[in-house]
Predict the structure.
Amino acid sequence: MARNTQVTADHNAPLVTQILAQFVAKHPSRGWSDAVDHEAHRTFLNWLGCAVGASGHEAADAALAAIAMLQPAQQASVLGRKTQVDMASAALVNGITSHTFDFDDTHLKTIIHPAGPVASAVLALAQHQKLSGRDIIDALVIGIDVACRVGNAMYPDHYDRGWHITGSTGTLGAAAACARLLKLDVQKTAMALGIAASQPVGMREQFGTMTKPFHPGGAARAGLMSALMASQGFTASPKALEAPRGMMQTVSLKNDWSEITGELGQRFEISFNSYKPFACGIVIHPSIDACAQLKAKGITPEQVERLELRVHSLVLELTGKKEPADGLQAKFSVYHGCASGLTFGRAAEEEFSDHIVTREDMVALRRKVVATVDDSIDEASADVTAILKDGSKVHVFVEHAIGSLQNPMTDAMLEAKFHGLSDNVLGKAQVDELLKACWGLGNSANVDALIKLATPV
């Protein structure tokens, strides 16, 4: 039976695979402002804390048990554990743990979590190759730029189709970063991007399961392997990204090529990275912030008859689980986010633990949240009114939640978050030293000291 092979495609797309390869291979070390360099250190620090914090999670146990069956060589470290595996597996597991708590960084324009795929691949390769901290920071900036520029070009169509954009673009970012670390020439860098372009990872159907954090881990592993294969002469299409049947035109109807080429090497997407104060999907954060403000005003759960929540439709599309059964599902429940904000004034990983999620008082408070879609409200905002049992009302509107670009977490806040994640794994004194190593990474000769500090005694 004949089938329709017509494709609506852009046959005149710019050669973005080659353009990006030229940028990755040729852009000078620290070819950006001090502010960009500082943001790279903030990104690395936040990623590391998330990975260490979740290092004991059952998802990491399961992944490492499967890896052990392959009898991996001891090449690179699993953060937060006394375990070494091969480079690709270290990238996989550290990528998984960095996203397990949903507490990692977010490029808000695309809701990509860029450090998970890129930093996980970079650190594994850099540890094995004995590369410098400056090499790591350079690769991180450049890899994140590639991932987020491709994301900018395809968002929101690519995401709306069901792709988990962190994994699908993260594979390219990890490949670019590792190609940079390996000092591949332009041609081999293009091949690394081409190999990675055939490995986009992740579907949104997996949200709320262990497979969601697998996506950045899988992307890190795929990107690292793509660069290693390219270094050995493995080939790919030189137009793997932009061709009519290349990656981008296959997985998205929207392809704004100017988002890739515009101000390339001048504007760095890591500058637009943000960090989560709450361990859940970013669209819940304004609602949590609003309910935490209610708590700060003296409102208690016992006083509340009803919490009226007005949010953009995307919030309920992504996080509309009314009766989450466990912590993973609760990360996709704006109802639980509101209950946590009002009860605890925060929503760190502990507030998404199974025992908190299933507590009777939390279940009862979630059921008092009445959420209404109002698309006149921005997806980064929330409008909350507490209707009290005495008939009075207390209203809070959050335009930009804490952690957003307009209301960013400070360095001190990031350090406090790092301690909250890592102290139980490594001990406070060791975490203090690890934080110093993170801030000084760009000036370090290698990562040996940092890796040792990220390993339990």
Observations:
- Residues 282-398 form a domain with the 60s Ribosomal Protein L30; Chain: A; fold (CATH 3.30.1330.120).
- Residues 1-7 have pLDDT under 50 and may be disordered.
- The chain is about 50% helix and 10% strand.
